[in-house]
Every structure is written in structure tokens, then in C-alpha cells.
Amino acid sequence: MVTQGEDSRLPVITAEDRTALTDSLRRLLADRCTEADVRRTMETQSGYDPGLWRELAEMGVVGLVIEEEYGGVGAGPVELERVTEETGSALLCGPLISSGVLAAELLRALGDADAKSRLLPGVADGARLATAALTGRAGGWTPETIEVDAKPGAGGGWSLSGVASYVTHGQIADVLLVAAKTPDGIAVFEVEPSRTAIKALPAFDHTLRLAEIVFDATPARRLAGSKPAWDAVEQALDLARVALAGEQAGAGKRTLEFTVDYAKTRAQFGRLIGSFQAIKHMAANLVLESESAISAARHAAQALADGSPQAAAAISLASFACADAFNQIAADAIQMHGGIAFTWAHPAHLYLRRARADAQLFGASAFHRERFLQRLGA
Amino acid sequence: MADGAPALTDDALRAEVRAWLAEHWKGLPQPRPGPGGAGWTTTPEHRAWLAKVVESGWAAPRWPTEWYGRGLADHQARIIEREFAAVGAPGSGQDRTNLWANTALAYASPTFKPKIVPQLLKQEVGMCLLYSEPGAGSDLAGIRTRADRNGDHFVVNGQKVWTSGAATADYGMLIARTDWDVPKHKGISFFFLPMKQEGVEVRPLHQITGESHFNEVFFTDAICPAENLLGAPGAGWGVLQTALAYERSVMGEGARGPRSGVAESNGEEPLIALAREAGVLGDPLIRQEIAKVIGYRRLNAMNTARAKSDLAQGTSSSIMSLGKLAMSRILHEEARVRTLILGAGSLLEGPDHPRAEDANFLTLNAYFTSIGGGTDQIQRNIIGERVLGLPKEPEVDRDVPFRQVRGNA
Do A234 and A217 fall within a single domain? Predict the structure, then answer.
């Protein structure tokens, strides 16, 4: 659910600031997040590069949407989306969206002052990795898919039992925010990861980390909230979806670029393959997909920043449009390259793997299309 | 400031337009569609108003003062357009949208220009386009209609097709071959051909929609005064590019909706309203399809908005060239989903079955956009080559004298 008029972040970011931020981020990623870096990092156990993570935090990227009083930049969805266009383009590995967006926004949306002041500064400066466990083994990121039950214990504490799955970067998190069912509805709990059994899931996208977490009478702190907890979760999910839409738009654009570049240099039958209409027309279709994805992601970010009543529908639209576009671009890119892109050494499959992952996270396209219609009132 | 006129502030200009409109604009009867739905039949009141707008310099303010203009910069001209739009008065912004007048201003001969330009601005003459031929569609430069010089005039023979408004037009913008011994793009000339003469025969075309918006036009020794030549002989392809650019800029604006005229929604998305009415809004498969297609239309609107804002910030945008391709997908897909919603109901036609009539009409009329004004395939070539910089397909006829190209002997 998108809340209106509650955004306490101030519009301190000018268009020039935004360009400066994305420019320096692009330079950093061009230097430190090359294809070789991505391949090296994705094979590590943690799945992120701590040195690069620190630099991203110093640049303000990790704490971008966290309020200034907690050490963040206090930027909003528009800046976030521009940033994830860049990180998506570079296939950045790491918990940027899990920690800096999903978990941070969930804390903000709940409004538990104690939790915010204890947790957010560490999240903002990158020293603490947080994530949110919001769905069970069915996936789906809806209340019905939650498989964790919470029971009140002695002394105001709670205990959780059950399973959360597809927890992004769960295996490297220092803080877990867990959505669980209580006798009085869904609530969000803060859990020490060491008190749970965390199993790393083998992700098809090697640049991603996923975990399944088993709770067995695990002690948990119930986070206070100024609104129903699931509304806060939806608010966090929607911001994460905007970030993900930007990531997909940026990654799709990059994939199309290197594919078109290849079509300009690869010759067969004595001609550059880009001169064949069979290739050219695929590329032209993908331009439409790529540009539409960028428009959708930016529009959703702007609508959310403006507190527009249409923001919810715009986010749903961006979610399925960007997912579908990136998947089509990444899939066609392999076909257009031919045999070279069937090799592990070629980067195209890295983008297809990311496209397939992003298309499932926080809800799949069919879910977002249905939600889009509902949000249009149908 | 052009023409040495004293610079006018935006506020002063706005005030001047407002005052002028307040004094002169009294409203007009609605223009009626012409025969077969093509063009407009302008009323005498409409023409009188346009004449007033033209004489006052509001019709084409970007143009120089000696040509009914004011030599204004684009942003000031837009102020005028906005003021006209605010009261619903037509006639302004013609320096942006009147393809006939802009083409004539740029290329007409010194003797013809003073005659034709004011007539075009005041819409005193009807116009039509004489470009495509049965043998020259996507490959427009392959035209075989010929214009042969004979003293002070040209003699025109051949055939054109897809001409709307031909029956009522006073002039047609014609491309014809004047030199057969040079490559295809170099032997073409551009004319304002007088249409009301014996050598010009107009026959209506019956479209797949059952309508007749277009004609075939046959030329048998039709006469065109030499002063009606626009640009130099053989330079017609360049003139055509200017004319096409103006045409595309107005064409992208919109496509036709349902024609049954039976209202189907009050502000709701038309496909949602249709599905609700048909009782299938709860069908999850149909819901998915509806969402996808509404998405296409919204994405296109977002692309257009982003392109405009890019342009306003001075960065050129490649998104503009995507609009036509996007619209053709939107129209085909919307028609497909309408059919899906109606199911067997789409078997029917006629006034008693307006929903089926709309779905079937839109299914067929979608080709107007995916073929007309450059097919989707040509559009993809343009995007591939001009936006992405992909190499062109080898052209076997490009540097060959037209006479020697296969099929033209």
C-alpha cells in the first residue's frame, strides 16, 4: 500500500545533485564492478565485495533513502530509482535492496522509534546488514504465504516458529525483520539471526543470495507500529519494487547496448549481422521494451515521491513491465549473439539469470498485473 | 529579435493575444466531417475566421513578417497557441502543423508562393497527397508516375493510390519521375498539381473496414504549370522528406477509437468497462490480458512524456521514433483483447451489435497504423538504423539509373 503525505524525507536533492551522484556511482562501478569483479564476487560465499560496499556506503548509496537523522541521505524514490538503474546496469552483487531499501523502509514504515535509532545508523553506514523475511516456501510476498507463527512469551517477549523462505541475503544478515502471524494479525519482529537455523538456498542467479530460515521457538522482539504491520510491509515492498524496476530497466538497457554493439562488429555472409533485418527488427523491438521499462520505472518513482493517488498502480505497472522487458531483452540478447552467448564466458547469461531472479522477487508479473487491475478499480 | 521588431516580453505578448481573442473570437459552428468521413468541410464562417487569424499574424507567428508571421521564437509562438487553445479558437500554430503551407513556404517558386501560401493558411484550397503507387509502397522512391516538361508546363501520366480527399482537393502534392537516367532518388520532382482538370480521374477505394477514405488517382496527360514545381527538378526527394516530417509530427497524435458511437464507459478504462459489461471481468486469464494491454497504452504515454521532457531540456530523444511502432502494437492488441472479451459475440456485425462492430472494426483498422505512413517493418528499419546505428541492408538499386532497375524496363 502506498501512503500519501507521510514522506518525512525532505526534497533536499536537486537535479544536479542527482546527476552528480549517478555520475560518480557510474564511475565507481565502471572501476570496481566490472564483469570480472562480478564473476569473482558471485563465486564468494558472502556474495558481495566488502570493500566496494564500504565505498558505496561512503558515497551515500547504501543509506540513500534512510533519513538524515539516522545517518542516511534522506533521498527519495526518484534518486533511488536512478541509482538502481546504475547498479542494475553493472550487475552489482550485494544486499543494497535487501538492507538499504527493503529492511530500512520497513523500519521507517513501522515507525518503532527505538528500533529505528538502534538499527538504522548501522544500516545506513553499511556496517550492519539487514533484511526482511516476508514470505514462506510458496513465495509470493503476500500475507497468505507467511509460514511463521508468533506466540507471546513471558516478560513481553515473543517466540517465533515456522519457516521463511526466499529471504534475500538472509545468510549474511546481521538483523532479520520477520513478518509472522500473531493471534491479533500479522506483526513484524526483530530476530537475532544466530538464534535461527539459516540454510543458504542455491540461487540460479549467482549474483544473488537467498536463504531459508527456520524458527523454532526463536525469541523475537515485536516491533511497534503506527499502522497495521502488513501495510508497513507493503510500503517497504513497494519501495523495493521501485528499486527493482530501476535495476531491471538499467540492466535491460545495458544488455541491449552490448548486443547492438556486437551486431555492429560480427560479420557473417560478408555482412555485419546488424544489417540483416532478422537481427535489426529484434533490436528495434527491444528498444521499445527498454525505453518503456525506463519510463515505467521513473514514472513509478516520481509518482511515489509525489504521493500521487496513482502511485500504487504505477508501481504495479512498472513491476510487470520492467520484469517482462528485462526478460525479453536478456533472452533475445542470447539469441541475437548466437553461439558465443551460449558460453559461460559470455556475460549475456549473467543478465538473463538476473532477469529471471528479478522477475520473481517481491511478486511475479502475473501477480503485479492482477494487482494493477485491482488498483485501477477493476 | 527577427525583422528588427522590438522584443516583446512573454507577458506583453500573452496580454496582446488575450485582448485580440476577447475582441474577435465569438465561437464557430463545429466543422463537419467531409464525404466518407475524410477531411473537413469548412464553413464560410470558419474560413472567415481563419482569414482574420492569418491577416493578424497569429496563424504562423514563427514565420517572417513578410509571410504572415511575426518572426517569434518557438516558446513565444507556443504562448499564442496556448491562448488560442484556451478559448477553443482554431487557426494558430500552423507554422508547426500545416504541412501544406510549411512545404510551400520552404520550396514554392517565387511566382507561385505568394498565390498559394495565403490560400493554404486560410484553408481556401483543399489538398491531397499523391505519393504512393501500386508499385511503390514501402519503396516510395520507386515511383513510376512521370512528369515530362513541355514548355511552360509538365505533362503527367501514371497512377497514385491511398489518396484521401482527392475528390474535393484543388491541389495534390505530387511526386513524379522527371529523369529516368539517374538513380531512383535523384530523378524525382515535387509538384502542386491542380486536381480539377480533365486529365485527373479519381476512383474511390473500398477498404477492408467497408469504408472508403481513400482513392486511386489516374493521370492521363494531366497538366501542371512549371511554376508549381517545388524545389529544383530532380530535388523532389528532399522536398518530400520535409513534407513527411510535418506529416509524421501531426500523425503521431492519435488513432481512431471505436466507431459504433455507443458509449461504453464513463471514465473507466474501456477494456475494463467492456469486460464488466460482458460479465467476464472476473476471468483471471482475461484480467491478465487486459492489464497487459492497458499497460502498453500507459507505457506509450509515459514514453511520449519523457521524450517531450528530454526535448524541453535540450537533449534529443530517440524515444519519439518509437511512438508509431508502439501505437500499432497497442491497436492490434486492444482489438485482440476486445475479441477475447466478446468471444462468440464477435461473430456478428451491424448496428444491433455495437460491441462486435467495434471489435471487428478495430481489428481491421489497426492495419491503418501498422501499414500506413510506413509499415512496422520499415519503422523497425528506421529505429535499427537511425536510433541504434545498425548498418543498412545492401541496396541493389541505389546507384543504378532508374531505367535499368529490375522491373522498371
Answer: no
Interface contact A266, partner B, CB < 8 A: no
**A295:B295 CB<8 A:** no
CA distances from B253 to A337, B83, B138, B301, B379 (A): 36, 20, 22, 11, 17
Same domain, A260 and A354: yes
Most confidently modeled range among B34-43, B103-112, B133-142: B103-112
What are the pLDDT digits (tens) for A152-171?
A: 988 889 999 999 999 999 99
Q: Which residue has the cell 553506514?
A: A125
Measured CA distances, B159 to A283, B140, B175, B189 (Å):
36, 13, 11, 15
The span from the CA of A293 to the CA of A299, in Å, is: 10
**At A167, which CATH number?**
2.40.110.10
Q: Are residues A267 and A222 in the same domain?
A: no
User: Cell triple for residue A369?
Assistant: 498485473
At which of A198, A229, A260 does a domain end?
Answer: A229
CB contact under 8 A, A295 and B299: yes
DSSP secondary structure letters along A79-108: HHHHHHHHHHHTT--SSIIIIIIIIHHHHH
Residues of chain B positioned with their CB less than 8 A from the CB of A260: 388-390
Minimum Cα–Cα distance from A258: chain B residue: B388
Which helix (H) or strand (E) covers residue B21, if one does?
helix B10-24
pLDDT above 50 for B35: no
Q: Write out the DSSP string of A136-168.
A: -TT---SGGG-EEEEEE-GGG-EEEEEEEEEEE
Residue A61 lies in a domain: yes
What is the rounded distance in angstroms from the CA atom of residue A211 to the CA atom of residue A233? 19
* Residue from B274, B390, B398 to probe the interface with A (highest A Cβ count within 10 Å): B390
* A287 to B381: CB separation less than 8 angstroms, yes or no: no
Partner-chain residue, chosen from A260, A369, A378, that has the shortest CB–CB distance to B390: A260
- Which residues on chain B are in Cβ contact (under 8 Å) with A320? 291-292, 295
**Percent share of chain B, pLDDT over 90:** 74
Asked if B272 lies within 8 A of A287 by C-beta distance, the reply is no
Out of B299, B380, B387, the one facing A292 most closely (by C-beta) is B299
Contact in structure between A232 and A110 (CB atoms under 8 Å): yes
Mean pLDDT of the residues in chain B: 90
CB B29 within 8 A of CB B43: yes
Inter-chain touch B302–A275, beta carbons under 8 Å: no
A218 and A157 fall within a common domain: yes
Nearest CA in chain B to A322: B299
> Which residues of B are known to be catalytic?
247
SS3 B405: coil
* Chain B residues touching A370 at Cβ < 8 A: 284, 287-288, 291
CB pair distance less than 8 Å for A320 and B379: no
pLDDT tens-digit map of A14-50:
888 889 999 999 999 999 999 999 999 999 999 999 9
Same domain assignment for residues A238 and A347: yes
Domain residues for the domain of A353 are: 230-375
